[in-house]
Design a protein that fits this description.
By secondary structure, the protein is mostly helical. The protein folds into two domains: 4-181 and 295-322, Rossmann fold, CATH 3.40.50.620; 211-289, Tyrosyl-Transfer RNA Synthetase (Orthogonal Bundle), CATH 1.10.240.10. The chain has helices at 17-30, 42-45, 52-68, 86-95, 100-104, 107-115, 121-135, 149-166, 211-219, 237-250, 254-261, 266-292, 296-322; strands at residues 4-8, 35-40, 76-80, 141-143, 174-176. It has a three-stranded parallel β-sheet. It has a two-stranded parallel sheet with strand order 4-5. α3 (52-68) packs across α13, α4 crosses α7 (121-135) and α10 packs across α11 (254-261). It is globular and about 70 Å long. The two termini are 33 Å apart. Bound molecules: tryptophanyl-5'AMP. Residues 6-10, 18-19, 21-23, 41, 44, 130, 133-134, 142, 144-145, 147-148, 151, 181-184, 193-194 line the site of tryptophanyl-5'AMP.
Length: 327
């Protein structure tokens, strides 16, 4: 039997070129060799305030983007988290096996709770729900960007503690971080990661951006005054980011990108990044529009819901039984 691999991307904003590299691309790279699950964590999205109509629209859009980016539903189980009730149910059982102290250490909670004036309990317990997503399917591998490693580490800790107390019930998950582009950076403030929710409209490139937006954003990306192209994350984070984006989207290594642009000007590098993104995202957008004009997203999600609910029920019943719940 193939090992299981699982990941999800929140429908909390438009997906960025970072989300593709950290999440979707890895799924398309690994799907042949693993029993692969890719879902839309809509329960995670409501840990901060959402407009319900917009959230519902985004759930479908995210799945349209998964398909447009090459995720093959013949190989990958695609589903919506809230349509499978076992995620939230297992999360509660795991919350009762996680301490306040463990959750207080989560850096994403610290950052997000500073940035929102309404800090829900769900935002605090969010990593436990993520652990439930993973442990429910005995996923051995979890492809993500670098920002999620602490959450996967917590899922391991929860699994380990549970297994020590009740016997071997959970598989220990491992994070898979892409070699290139584990943290694509904000184009205006390269010390931060690129995110779906940046306030500056020039900070992030979205997968569905039009060519004119890609051009505008890349050409105005922050660089430095060194005037030399080399890969130096510390002193030239803007240039390092552009080299990374170029490598990730053209399929070469960062070293090959550096060699290609050695001696060139920053404008040349930017133009090459615009060209490579315009081509790749243009193909995604075209496919997306084709898919969204059909009922494909709903068909795939109906099948995914039924299949994954049956899989999740087995683990949930096992854990519920172990804990002495019900009759
Ligand atoms: P989310 O929705 O913030 O991000 C989705 C995926 O994109 C990666 N990512 C990036 N990778 C490279 N550069 C960036 N700038 C960048 N920004 C985001 C993220 O690491 C992630 O892989 N908690 C998760 C969703 C989730 C999940 C799960 C993931 C819920 N349950 C279970 C894996 C397993 C999140 O908020 O990702």
């Amino acid at each position: 039997m193939k090992d299981r691999l699982l990941t999800g991307l929140q429908p909390s904003g438009n997906l960025t070129i970072g989300n593709y590299v950290g999440g979707i691309k890895q799924i398309t790279d690994y799907a042949d060799n693993y029993d692969t699950y890719l879902f839309v964590p809509d329960l995670h999205a409501i840990t901060v305030r959402q407009d319900p109509a917009l959230l519902r629209k985004r759930v479908r859009e995210v799945v349209g983007i998964y398909l447009a980016c090459g995720v093959d539903p013949e190989k990958v189980h695609l589903y919506v988290q809230s349509e499978n009730l076992y995620h939230a149910n297992l999360s509660w059982l795991l919350e009762c096996h996680t301490t306040y102290g463990e959750l207080q250490k989560m850096t994403q909670f610290k950052t997000k709770s500073r940035n929102h004036d309404y800090v829900s309990c769900g935002l605090f317990t969010y990593p436990v729900l993520m652990a439930a997503d993973i442990l429910l399917y005995s996923a051995k591998y979890v492809p993500t960007g670098a920002d999620q490693t602490q959450h996967v580490e917590l899922a391991r800790d929860i699994a380990q503690k549970f297994n020590n107390r009740y016997g071997e019930h959970f598989v220990m998950p491992n994070c898979l971080i892409p070699k290139i582009g584990a943290r694509i950076r904000d184009l205006q403030e390269p010390e931060k990661k690129m995110s779906k929710s940046a306030e500056n409209p020039k900070a992030s490139i979205f997968l569905m951006d039009e060519p004119k937006d890609i051009k505008k954003k890349i050409m105005s990306a922050v660089t430095d005054s060194e005037g030399v192209i080399r890969y130096d994350e510390q002193n030239q984070p803007g240039i390092a980011n552009l080299l990374t984006i170029y490598a990730a989207y053209s399929g070469c290594t960062v070293d090959e990108a550096v060699q290609k642009f050695t001696g060139a000007g920053y404008g040349d590098l930017k133009k090459a990044v615009v060209a490579v993104l315009t081509e790749k995202l243009g193909a995604f957008r075209e496919e997306y529009e084709r898919i969204m004009a059909t009922s494909r997203v709903d068909d795939v999600l109906d099948a995914g819901r039924d299949y994954t609910t049956a899989v999740a029920k087995e683990k949930y019943d096992e854990i519920r039984n172990v804990l002495g719940l019900g009759r």
